[in-house]
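Supplementary Note 2. Why include the ligand at all?

Several targets in our set were suspected to adopt different conformations when bound, so apo predictions alone were not considered sufficient. For every target with a known small-molecule partner we therefore ran a joint prediction. The input for S-adenosylmethionine is given below.
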Amino acid sequence: MSENTFNFKGYDLPERLVNLTGGGPDSFDAISTAHIADLRRYLGIKSDSRLLEIGCGIGRDAIPLTEIITEGRYDGVDIIGDSIAWLSANLTPRHPNFNFHHYNVADQLHNPTGTEDMRSFKMPLEDNSVDGVFAWSVFTHMLSDYITYYLGEFQRVLKPGGRAFLTCFLYNDAVLAKARETNLTPFDLRFEHPWGEGCLINDPQHPLGAVAYNEERLKALVGASGLTLERIALGSWSGYWPYPEGGQDALIISKA
Ligand SMILES: C[S@@+](CC[C@H](N)C(=O)[O-])C[C@H]1O[C@@H](n2cnc3c(N)ncnc32)[C@H](O)[C@@H]1O
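The joint prediction is reproduced in token form.
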């Protein structure tokens, strides 16, 4: 039986995989456009940039990036095997400078049958080879040992002067109080459950459904990796910050 697809910039994306991105076909195009504007703003992407995306999903960013990264290279990593297989079969043949890698890591939400430990992987990228790393809605589902693993790999693969843009949920008491009052997202983000140092989860039944960190903890994780936290772009999800720069918060990190 053929499956339902959604046409996005000439690609017939399986809806089943689109629905694993945290939004469906209705919002796919608008979110993609906003992501590319942010990548230009925070990473300064150019036609010859070498980029690494963690949590590439079904190519919401990779597809429009094929029109921009014409001389450089893009590598995308995800734990959803079907999305990586689909992108490798449908996008890489048209754009051989776009490559996709599957990490078969167990994840209650995105890859329940995964068998491997993230920390056993070494990214298929050379040291000091990447201009920019980005991850949308990935650290928002991640506990600190995996964040530490990824930051270590970013430190290794980024070129000196390279940057990372990583969205997250950042909390303090005022943010939590406001988020519980406003409930602006469809995910009822209350973050009432401590889950280790400087970390709160939203739902103990699904610990990776949404994970938040305080600033001190995030600074410590970044500092331990040897990377530099340039700044935090504050998001609108809680309704607390008066001039938010995006929906989620984001870390802008650089390698000296
Ligand atoms: C909310 S979705 C966002 C997908 C994509 N960034 C987008 O905007 O369409 C989060 C993605 O992160 C992926 N992911 C979760 N844990 C991961 C991990 N440890 N390593 C790589 N990707 C991961 C999920 O499989 C999922 O595709």
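The chain has two domains: 1-124, 127-256. The two ends are 52 Å apart (CA to CA). Comparable summaries for the other entries are listed in the accompanying table.
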